[in-house]
Amino acid sequence: MNSILLEDVYCDSGVPQYTFVEPSEYTKTKVALRTKGRGVVVEGPSGIGKTTCIKKILEDTRIPATCLSARIADDIECIEFLLQDPHDVGVVIIDDFHLLKEETKRAFSDLLKVLADEAREDIKLILIGINRAGECLVQLAPDLNNRIDTIKIQLRKSQSLLQKGKTY
Fold first, then answer.
1. Which of 6, 44, 77, 142 is most exposed by smallest CB count within 10 Å?
2. Angle of helix 73-84 versus helix 102-118 axis, rounded to 10
3. Are 62 and 55 in contact (CB under 8 A)?
4. Strands across the sheet with 65-69, in order?
5. Yes or no: is domain 37-153 CATH 3.40.50.2300?
6. pLDDT of residue 160
């Protein structure tokens, strides 16, 4: 029998295998992910569980997705290719979206508007970034405002108290 270590149960980083706690925004996020034609922006402080929440919803709903990160050079190439030919790609998650260049963010703003206006079902974009990632997109394309779902995942009071109480 393999033993489970304490650090595996109370995971400080990565996707927890044993103790996922749904954030209060979980149901709203799940509905946004299932809504066709609308992009989803998930924003919040670093390390809050934005990516974990999205991955857990995709796992629970069995929605296949391609996960890309703006921190990985090979993924950035895929992201740029996606902007050139955004057809029949399914669900695409772009993590750390806030790190992309301004012109890339602007191109995503334009793409999100087109996807919403055309109610496209062949592509679903989920952009994950730190605070105000959605606001950044709307500033680049103000007419995008009511065409995307912006989910703000925030630190719960209990998390805040626990983090303040950490000692090592």
1. 6
2. 40
3. no
4. 65-69, 90-95, 123-129, 39-43, 148-152
5. no
6. 45
